Description:
alpha+beta; Immunoglobulin-like; rod-shaped; 4 domains
Amino acid sequence: MERRTKITVHPPNNRGLREVRIGGETVGSVWSLRELRTLLRRHGVPPDLDPDDRSRVSWLGGGSDTWPDHSWRRHAVIVLMVAGLVTGGVLLTTVGAPDAFNALTFAGRISGFLFILGGVTEVAAAVAAVDYWGKRGLTASGAIVLVGVLIALTVTTLLIFLWSEEMEYTPYMWAIFPLCAWSLWALWVVIRGKVWRGTPHPTKIATGVVVTALLAAVNLAYSAMYQPTTAPAKLDVSARFGEARLDLDEPVYHVPVTFRLKNSGTVPLYILAGDWSVYGRGGKYVEKSEELRDRRTALEQGEHDAWRHVESVGDTSLGVGPFSGPGNWYEPGEEFSQDKIVEIPKASEYDTVKAQLKLHVMRMDRGRIDLAAFSTEQYSWDKESVLYCPEEKCHGEFLAYNAQVRNNNNLVNVTRKPRYVTAWWGLGEADSNFDSNISTFKGKGFMSDAETERENKRYDLFTVTADAAIPFADVVDPRP
């Protein structure tokens, strides 16, 4: 390039940029005199050139002192835009990644990947923001920024809506609420600046964004609400006595009992707590039972059965123990059985022998349990144990189990306190007892009955029971 080539600096545009030409070729645009010197040096102009030398430099629409750009304001907008969009990208990726790689349903994984895609779009929008409030080398940078802002506003609005259902503190609040406020400000900035102008096919871009948002919403609703509600959960349980045998050396009958469960539904199931028990019932035979005369007292005590010639003298525990838990899980169609042998003295005066299997169950499509932690026993007699069980729930010494429950939709995890499942199994002086619940307490304390019912409904906790009974005469003299 010849040293005497004419340099032309054009008038500022609406953003304060001045186009620079060397000869007849446009070499760039600049915001300030310092940028002009840098641009000229890159194109071979000596650094000692006097910009006011009219024989070399032609100034149109203002001289070397006309630079209307408010650089501090523009840079502030760039910093705020980039900070908000990058924060949105991190938040969306954090929310979506657990579902994308670990969701139980295909729809849940699609929803997670859509959130990750939204996070990538946010980062791309941050890069586009630097270009749009810079030299605008990309035609579509403004539209990309608009898409990023709309994604941030949509997601934060959704998260705040979910949070408002419980209004519980979570660390994510420190990102969600400021990001929502930022997205409102950013939306005002991009609409006022009409950033979509000059973008090819803006209608198609807007349609693509709307369709993607609707697809994400449908997948979210399907995986979080519809499918867990309509998919049936069913656990079949049974208790069955086998043929008794008299011990060869001792006056004791060995009575086999088989307890069995089978997941006959369509969703995997957790066993939170379970208990098997075998009882012997004694009875006093009379002409007419006194229990028939005072049915009100019997009903108040939960005794709904009445026998005309028998007055019950109570049940005696013959054998108890935990069953398949806590934390074991069963796929649809999977089953499990366990045989127990109960010893009954030959001289016993029971009239009936009863067996019962009772389980607390939770659907796996409502949440996931940290099984490594849940399978670790804690003991009530261990002074360092962090778990607690009130006297009215756990009689005597007990085993306790506790672990965090994560919702299968991570949107819920980030908008609510952590939930924990706690299970107990205790052996009292005459009987066993067990219980389980889901609460916000990590092993200590209990929620109110209304809160407990709400959590049990949310995670679809239910109880299944199977009973069996045989006359003691069948034990003493089994029928062929």
